[in-house]
Amino acid sequence: MSASYPDHLREEVERYLQDMSFSEEPLTAGLEEAMRYSLLAGGKRIRPVLALATARAVGLEQHEVLPLAGAIELIHTYSLIHDDLPAMDDDELRRGQPTCHVKFGEGVAILAGDGLYAEAFRHLLRKQRSAPERVLAAAAELATATGASGMVGGQYADISGRTPPGPAALRRLHELKTGRLIGASVLCVLLLTGTADGPEATPFRRFAAELGVLFQIVDDILDVTGTDDALGKPRGSDERHGKRTYVSEFGIAQARELAAESHATARAALAELAERGAVQDGATAELEDIADFIYTRTS
Amino acid sequence: MSASYPDHLREEVERYLQDMSFSEEPLTAGLEEAMRYSLLAGGKRIRPVLALATARAVGLEQHEVLPLAGAIELIHTYSLIHDDLPAMDDDELRRGQPTCHVKFGEGVAILAGDGLYAEAFRHLLRKQRSAPERVLAAAAELATATGASGMVGGQYADISGRTPPGPAALRRLHELKTGRLIGASVLCVLLLTGTADGPEATPFRRFAAELGVLFQIVDDILDVTGTDDALGKPRGSDERHGKRTYVSEFGIAQARELAAESHATARAALAELAERGAVQDGATAELEDIADFIYTRTS
Hints:
2 copies of one chain form a homodimer. Chain A is mostly helical. Chain A contains 15 helices and 2 strands. The first copy, chain A, has a single domain (7-296), classed as Farnesyl Diphosphate Synthase (Orthogonal Bundle). The interface between A and B is large, with 58 and 58 residues.
């Protein structure tokens, strides 16, 4: 297993995000600063890189989906800002830096998140050069994946303390909270190419869904086994917040087994794409690398 | 001046909002409850009613823009929930009822707002039956009107304390915070009909922009002269929050003059539409009623 992350795609995303600006309005300069502070705080850019790698797998040039990829990272950043708020997880550090509300105050942080979400749709709807009905379908999927039956619903389930016991509800919670946006990073590219219902779709959808699960299991393991330095925040925050995780539910050994199974399922879905002739030979190499990276990452 | 609000349109909006649901997911039932609590708390529904009245002015049936109108009210509700938060205006009452965060807690209120905003785009993009490129244009306008150089930017300017002195900056702040979404309630309908750049567009745009200004001036006056009962919250909240308003800037008498001028400008824009033959005779009657209502309202 290679686990060499496609850094060439990450760098392309990074440059694209650096060039984004949201408001020329002098009255809102401080808001722009808070939005860019959180957006440009680094990270692996897994979701937009996944969108670029999916584009390459289906025969597009990666730059053709950069507006979509950028929008997805804006949404991810917004979700981190709101998750970190005192009324939610109350985290003071993110990637080794003060979180948005610590740096700019709580009111500004709420608005920076709100603004990033609005600007994500504005950017996707104005900049993505695909047929209007396809941009529409991708934007609708993104709204669904991040709405009340998606990411925001999952975050609610996470903080509500009302999630029933047992692994099924835990998996469902994480499908919503983490999985839906990761899945959308793949699915929206298929929607832009009009192949979301074609023969490619089934294994691609399975890959997308499984990658979200894999990400979360590894995340839960790292919160227990990682170092503060590598994580960029204090280890053990899940336990302090009384959160149910794959580790609290199954123990560390079984969580590792689940991660291995999940990784194998994701890789098998990619292999099936090639077997079916749904993609060109070798076209899923970067997607394989991303799956391997998510499985083996240490931060 | 009649000032008879088009209640038949408000009732149609109300029924439509009643029928909306956001998530069938059992894990998120409490989120759905909070979203519907705030959405169905009443109010004049000025923005969606404005969209329906605009549709009738340009010769559509009002029900043809209900998905847009519903999306706009979801966005307005989200903005109220976030504005009321302790980190923002810290308001405990809205329309005589506990605000969302008082009733459900701060974390849930933040997510209820986030969820309503996502569901607004989901709803508009999935339900609005117009040509895809027109739905796309309307959704992009809505994202722009509510983003960093729109509503969220205006709310930032309002809480930042960094807005420069003088009436120009105050007017600009309110154009962003209140005016852009009210304007979009008219403009998005023109975008759905493909007439946003036609001969109707200029007076319509002037009407839409002016109505936002008028709304805010009257709002500022009512915060000083209204009764707690009529307002559904304690009077004088602007002063307690140290907010600059049309009243604090100009005094009550001049603010009333400005409101009268603004109302006259809005009415003149509608008259011009009829003179130009851009709309059928009498087609702007409901828009006139809305302008009159906004000018003369007491709550």
